[in-house]
Every structure is written in structure tokens, then in C-alpha cells.
Amino acid sequence: MKKTATIFETSTGGLVYKKVDGLFLWLLVKHKGAGHWGFPKGHIGDSIKDERMEDAALREVREEGGITAKITHNEPSVAQYFYRRGPVLHNKKVHYFLMEYISGNVEDHDDEVTDAKFVDEEELSKPSRLIQI
Questions:
Q1: pTM score > 0.85 for this model?
Q2: What is the pLDDT along the chain (133 residues), one digit of tens a residue?
Q3: In the chain, which residue ranges form alpha helices assigned H by DSSP?
Q4: Are strands 23-31 and 113-120 parallel, antiparallel or unpaired?
Q5: CATH number of the domain that 31 lies in?
Q6: Is residue 51 part of a domain?
Q7: CA–CA separation, 108 vs 21, rounded Å?
């Protein structure tokens, strides 16, 4: 039996909120390739050598979400999931930092995403919302 090749990946990102009229709104981005909605995330050190995880998370939020945020909790939540791309199994671990929106416009996202927006907690929890963490 042929053994499946596995790639281990580590990424980081942000769970970004802003408070409007007493409601918490959460930043979601629609990823270009897969077409799913999720939280902004990406690889650590893909453009900056020896990049710290926190700095990479803030950079990814800026790039994919078009906004500037600040980390409000220094201990990340970790999500782990698996996906297959062709014959290769990917074992991915993402470290998400809780962040608060500071400034910027979600329309200023980069070309890795097709859309970015803030949604309320009700919309975030809808079963129809396709989110990949």
C-alpha cells in the first residue's frame, strides 16, 4: 500500500472585531482560490525573514482584510484541520489572535481575496455561512 504524502503547515491570522452601537462585528474574507469565507490568515515569514507570529498575523489582517488592527489577547486560539490537494494530505495548524479594529477600509484588501466584510454574530453563526477556519 502506497503511503500518503503529508505536508505540515503552520499559519497565523486574526479574529478581528469592531464594536458598533453595542454590537460586535467580525471580519471575514472570501478566499479567491477556494471561494470560501473565513478569517484572514497566512503563512509566517513568507515575505519577511524571522517574522514573529504576532507580526505575521497583523500583516495578514492588513493584506487580506484591508484594515489595521491591534492584538488584544496575546495567547492565540489554535485551530487544526486537514485537507487534501491532489494526492497530498495537508495537516494545517492556524494560530488566531484576538484583535480589535483600529482603522482602514475592507475594500482595500489584496488580490488573494475577492471580498472582505464585517458581519454580526448572528450572521457569523448561520449554518449557511461557509467558513473554513
A1: yes
A2: 677 899 999 999 999 999 999 999 999 999 887 778 899 999 998 778 889 999 999 999 999 999 999 999 999 999 999 988 889 999 999 999 999 999 999 999 999 999 999 999 888 877 655 555 5
A3: 53-65, 121-124
A4: antiparallel
A5: 3.90.79.10
A6: yes
A7: 24
